[in-house]
Design a protein that fits this description.
Length: 135
C-alpha cells in the first residue's frame, strides 16, 4: 500500500505553472510525495521560459512533456491543485482541492516567469509543511 501523499497539479496547457509546481514538489519533498501534473488542453511542449527559470533553481524540466488530465489521475490523488482551470477538473468527494491564483507564464519571457516561479516555490514549501509535518 502506498502511504505517500499523492498530489496532482493541473493547469490548462500543462506547460508552465503545473510543470514548475510538480518539479518543485518532486525536488523539495525528496521523494516523500507522489507528484503528477496534467492539463485540460495540454500543449505540445513545456514553456521554454519556465524550463529556463527552473534551470536557474537547479531543477531540469527539459525532458518533461505536457500530459492530458484524466479522471483516473484525479481519483488517484489526495490533493488536487488547479491553476486557472478549476471548472474543467472533475470533483470527487474525499479529495483536497485548492485553486492557486497565479499569473499565466504563456508567451512570457524568463524575466516575467521568475516571480511566478518564486510564488509557486513558496506555495509548494507550505504544501510540504502541511503534507509532511514531521519532516
Amino acid at each position: 500500500m502506498n502511504t505517500k501523499p499523492y498530489v496532482l497539479f493541473v493547469c490548462v496547457h500543462n506547460a508552465g505553472r503545473s510543470q514548475m509546481a510538480a518539479a518543485f514538489l518532486q525536488h523539495l519533498a525528496e521523494g516523500q510525495v507522489e507528484v503528477r501534473s496534467a492539463g485540460s488542453m495540454p500543449t505540445d511542449r513545456v514553456n521554454p521560459a519556465a524550463v529556463e527559470a527552473m534551470r536557474e533553481e537547479g531543477i531540469d524540466m527539459s525532458t518533461e512533456i505536457p500530459k492530458i488530465l484524466t479522471t483516473e489521475a484525479v481519483q488517484a490523488s489526495d490533493v488536487v491543485i488547479t491553476m486557472g482551470c478549476g471548472d474543467t477538473c472533475p470533483i470527487f468527494s474525499g479529495k483536497r482541492y485548492e485553486d492557486w491564483k497565479l499569473d499565466d507564464p504563456a508567451g512570457q519571457g524568463v524575466e516575467a516567469v521568475r516571480p511566478i516561479r518564486d510564488e509557486i516555490r513558496t506555495r509548494v514549501e507550505t504544501l510540504i509543511g502541511e503534507l509532511l509535518p514531521l519532516r
